[in-house]
Design brief:
InterPro entries: Ald_DH/histidinol_DH, Ald_DH_C, Ald_DH_CS_CYS, Ald_DH_CS_GLU, Ald_DH_N, Aldehyde_DH_dom. The active site is at 250. Residues 12-473 form the Aldehyde dehydrogenase domain. Belongs to the aldehyde dehydrogenase family. The protein contains 16 helices and 24 strands. The protein has helices spanning 40-55, 58-61, 64-80, 82-93, 97-118, 154-168, 182-194, 208-217, 230-242, 265-277, 297-308, 329-345, 376-379, 395-403, 418-427, 460-465, and strands at residues 2-4, 6-8, 11-13, 20-25, 30-36, 133-141, 144-148, 172-175, 201-203, 221-227, 246-250, 256-259, 289-293, 348-351, 355-356, 362-363, 366-369, 386-392, 407-408, 410-414, 432-435, 450-451, 454-455, 468-476. It has a seven-stranded mixed β-sheet with strand order 14-17-18-13-12-20-21, with helices on both faces. A hairpin with a 2-residue loop joins β2 (6-8) and β3 (11-13). The longest helix is centred in the first third of the chain and has 22 residues, at 97-118.
């Protein structure tokens, strides 16, 4: 049994009440670690400590190039510990070691990318029309940044947020999910090891209603980056608005994966499987609505079923496992409930449809056909390995169905027609559109959602601007002092 403390102000500490909570291995259903449970007081301490680190001490005077050097060292440390970090993540959230290992080995790229951007944050010299005046702008760190991460990919999403904020010069407080706190605390060990000043990086663990809410509403929190459910995002947004805080929200999705009759069907079948059954469907970009052109519907479903039935379900720590468990008991129950909802709505179950007995909290890869886009199973985010197959007649209907949802995070299009590729990419209301692929990502490209899928963007150059504020500076070098009762415009 592992026992983790929180990391605040460069120190490993218990919560103010001394309470702890267990973290469960989703494969075995048994606890493997205990985590110090934070409180509102701990959250306040972390924000105050981060705020002080930005005002006094080494971080306050550190050059942008030196911040970048620290981020590069963090990237190197993650590389050196990638195998261990991947194992901790898999043990904590049940996702495949094959995927977690790949994700962790990719994380240093976020550090290196934003390390390179740290000293490229430049101001401007606008050409003002006023004689005798000089104006320049400077971009400054926005302030204390709170990063609230989900249980499905805490390290990938956490490092992305943290690297961006640190490159901008902010101090950070991370609140990981109460279901998956361990890997973020292991990251804190590396942050400490490579020499970030105390208070610059903090981790407070606990429950949303206690720690998360306190972090968001604290008056010295300037920026909140949240990844999670639509409900959680709305709660964060409303609380942050009361303090006029900057917010980035990456929320849910009900992404369409659209296959036209001219597509390479073998590739599209793999894309459909990757879109929904990878990570056991526990990803915001899951291609949970498979839209098939009516002329290929039957043969595609036949191929899809044959391929999906070969999926190896089991221990996520084994490299050849393809489908692992659901991370949490509430999510496990929610998925099974949605399967029953789909049956009651009249969708036709053609694969799976229940729990799997290979371990704790496993749901069989499940496919429904004859789904109408108005059904709950097609409109609401299940966040599990449940696929809704919807038939369409032509391109116009495919666009209409794709956009007929409150979400707009991602979409896939499978076609060999160049004109259609661009037409569909332009017409679909989603922050990311993949053509003849699915789930591709890079630290260099922006990622965000339309509609109820969120606000703002992670990754890419634009992301760092969301951790900056712009100051305009005016200097008068004219000897003439204008009339003080009249605003000078010329």
């Amino acid at each position: 049994m592992q026992h983790y403390q929180m990391y605040i102000g460069g120190r490993w500490v218990e919560g103010s009440t001394g309470e702890r909570f267990e973290t469960i291995d989703p494969y075995t259903g048994k606890p493997w670690a205990t985590i110090a449970r934070g409180t509102e007081a701990d959250a306040a301490l972390a924000v105050e400590t981060a705020h002080a680190a930005m005002r006094t001490g080494p971080w306050a005077t550190m050059s942008a190039s030196a911040r970048g050097a620290l981020l590069r060292r963090l990237g190197d440390a993650i590389t050196e510990n990638a195998k261990f970090l991947g194992e901790v993540e898999t043990r904590d959230n049940g996702k495949l070691i094959a995927e977690m290992g790949l994700q962790v080995r990719y994380l240093p790229q976020f550090c290196y990318y934003y390390a390179g951007l740290a000293d490229k944050i430049e101001g401007t010299v606008p050409p003002v029309e006023r004689a005798g005046y000089f104006n320049y702008t400077r971009n400054e760190p926005i302030g204390v940044a709170v990063a609230i991460t989900p249980w499905n990919s805490p390290l990938m999403l956490g490092v992305n947020k943290v690297a961006t904020a640190l490159a901008a010069g902010c101090a950070v407080v991370v609140k990981p999910s109460e279901f998956t706190s361990a890997s973020t605390l292991e990251l804190a060990r590396l942050v400490e090891k490579v020499g970030f000043p105390p208070g610059v990086f903090n981790v407070v663990c606990g429950y949303g209603q206690d720690v998360g809410a306190a972090l968001v509403r604290h008056p010295k929190t300037a920026k909140v980056s949240f990844t999670g459910s639509e409900h959680g995002g709305r709660t964060v947004y409303e609380a942050a608005a009361r303090g006029f805080k900057s917010v980035t929200l990456e929320l849910g999705g009900k992404s369409p994966n659209i296959v036209f009759d001219d597509a390479n069907l073998d590739d599209a079948v793999k894309g459909a499987v990757s879109g929904i059954f990878a990570a056991s469907g526990q990803t915001c970009i899951a291609g949970s609505r498979l839209l098939l052109h009516e002329t290929i519907h039957d043969q595609f479903v036949e191929r899809l079923l044959a391929y999906a039935k070969t999926a190896r379900i089991g221990n996520p720590m084994l490299e050849d496992t393809q489908v692992g468990p659901v991370t949490t008991p509430p999510q496990y129950k929610k998925i099974l409930d949605y399967i029953e909802v789909a049956k009651s709505e009249g969708a036709e179950l053609v694969l799976g449809g229940g729990a799997s007995d290979v371990g704790e909290w496993f749901v069989q890869p499940t496919i429904f056909t004859n789904v109408d886009n108005r059904m709950r199973i097609a409109q609401e985010e299940v966040f599990g390995p449940v696929l809704s197959v919807i038939k369409f007649r032509d391109q116009e209907e495919a666009i209409a169905i794709a956009n007929d949802t409150m979400y707009g995070l991602a979409a896939g299009v499978w076609t060999q027609n160049i004109r259609r590729m661009f037409t569909m990419a332009n017409a679909i209301e989603a922050g990311t559109v993949w053509v003849n692929t699915y789930r591709a990502a890079s630290y260099t490209t922006p990622f965000g959602g339309y509609k109820n899928s969120g606000l703002g963007y992670e990754s890419g150059v634009n992301a760092i601007r969301q951790y900056l504020k712009t100051k305009s500076v005016w200097i008068n070098f004219d000897a003439d002092v204008p009339n003080p009762f009249v605003m000078r415009l010329t």
